[in-house]
Amino acid sequence: MSSHPQQAVLRSSDATAHASRRRPDISNQRLIAASIVLPALLVLYVLALPLMPEALRTPGSPLTYLFGVGGTVLLFVAAVFVLVKRTGRGGAPVVWFMAHVGCGMLGFVLVVVHTTGKLDRPPALLLVNLVALMAIGVWARVRANRAMADTFGTKLGGFRVPDPETRAALASIVAEKTALLERLDPAASEATFSVTLGHLIRQPRAALAYLRLARAEAQLMGARQTVGLGQAWWRPLHLALAAVFVAGGVIHVVMVTFFAGYVADGGPVTWWHVTAWDF
Questions:
Q1: Do the domain assignments include residue 99?
Q2: How far is CA 203 from CA 212, 240, 248, in A?
Q3: pTM for this one?
Q4: Range of the domain at 197
Q5: pLDDT in tens, 261-272
């Protein structure tokens, strides 16, 4: 009789391990390999451009225009991952993470092809932005991921104990956050609640006030000071670069669609556009 509980535990452990093996994911090895192979292939492609057909060597040709459209769409799909994480809607986060990585890398390839190797115009700065985004993302997955796991596994005794004045300030902040939760999500717990995009849309003032309080709480606790510089700032930097890219991508789309004459700089407008306004 005593062996039955052990057998049940073993079966449960085996089932968990089996489910973990079937869980979709991107291994670190594959991610590192892709981050090395793709840039190397793109360098070879740029070097071989003089031997390519004219349609691939001409900026703004119908073919390279389509590459640009496809790359932009894929990169915007990769950006949707942030909305899925912040809203908790849209499907399994792991699947969206895989789409985030896959669409991001493939979109980067198409955008590089779209440039036809002409990197002397302002849109080329978006490529620098994308390279930085990819580098930070790969580093976060391969290195920062382990550091964060170690941080979560740290015993409470390893954290700094706040002084009485700080504890009083923290208690005041927690009380304000709890009061705001009555407006944002009455069923939520202050200890685990996180502001989502839905809260920002429905209750922008309360949501922003909650974010300010959460930031003040983290500063009082010295949360960022308890970890390394990279672990503390990689995510804000990654999100900032992503926001800059989205803004730059939208500006570029508007320029080539409505200000095609300015973009062509006196040359022929060979891509699809609505107007050819110039400054």
A1: yes
A2: 14, 23, 28
A3: 0.71
A4: 163-226
A5: 998 888 888 888
